[in-house]
Amino acid sequence: MNLATRYLGLPLAHPIVASASPLSATFYTELGSNSQAEAGSYFPELADYDCGISGYLETLESASSALDIPVIASLNGTTAEGWTGHARALEQAGAAAIELNIYSIPIDLAVSGAELERRYVEIVRQVRSTVRIPITVKLAPYFTSLPHLAAELVAAGADGLVLFNRFYAPDIDLQTLRVTRSLPLSTAAELPLSLVWIALLSRRLGCSLAASRGVESAVEVIKYLLVGADVVTTASALLRNGPQHLATMREGLERWLDTNHYDSVDAIRGLKDATHVEHVDALIRAQYVSALIEYVPGKLVQ
Ligand SMILES: Cc1cc2nc3c(=O)[nH]c(=O)nc-3n(C[C@H](O)[C@H](O)[C@H](O)COP(=O)(O)O)c2cc1C
Q1: CA 70 – CA 95 distance, rounded (Å)
Q2: Residue 32 CA from chain centroid, whole number
Q3: For the whole model, what pTM was predicted?
Q4: Spacing, Cα 139 to ligand 1 middle (Å)
Q5: Ligand 1 lined by 20 (C-beta under 6 Å)
Q6: Residue 103 pLDDT > 90, yes or no?
């Protein structure tokens, strides 16, 4: 069975990627045993998690030389110098690629959507002219015309897109009246948004696509591959079940391909993307999602 794939031009043995989370903030094995079984949300110990740029570079350097898989660095800058300076440092520390986690909350009444998107594109252009390694952009889903922005980001030099990021959930504690925040772990209920957008953008941008959100098991991995994802990333499931869950997902993928007589991941990639489904209007109305669920039987794996 050939599970091999490519992402950002990097050859990978299989398409399941651990995405940015406290688990990948260090590569010491103890963190795995700290991950909370059955946890419903995760409250990062920010002091431990955010080790600053020098700690991050040290971790990246050690991980890149110790591991035989590509290590993609995650970068969230604020100023132009921050984006480019840190990108250069990440490249020098051995990153195989850089994921730009661009998220600016539009709270200024005077800033238009077009202006905000122009800033995103400018960040990509500047980082592109600074580093030689591939760059990918992790996006939030909140854009009025995601296809247009995606095309602009690719034209500015993005080699890939990650759809989509998740964010802290603010809440109010009614006993103390304090504003709290947590990062609830995702479930497969979050799948449809990323699923539809990967399906709609697959093969149209000339860049890699990484699916992010709602991967609980091999079932979600297979669905994302069917709509055209080059890789499927997962954070919540690994925090909930521990890093070894990645192997369980990979085995489930392999078993499903085998049972359904496919000999590779390439054989199913994009089979159900928007260029292959008969009624794209159904896709846009999202009825497609239920059609897709019918196509992929519930008893896929395990
Ligand atoms: C506890 C936690 C911390 C995260 N930290 C980051 C981060 O620092 N940078 C980032 O780009 N994404 C971060 N993410 C988002 C994940 O990488 C991922 O994109 C998102 O959780 C959706 O995937 P999932 O449904 O598999 O969790 C974090 C997610 C969780 C749950």
Answers
A1: 8
A2: 20
A3: 0.88
A4: 12
A5: yes
A6: no
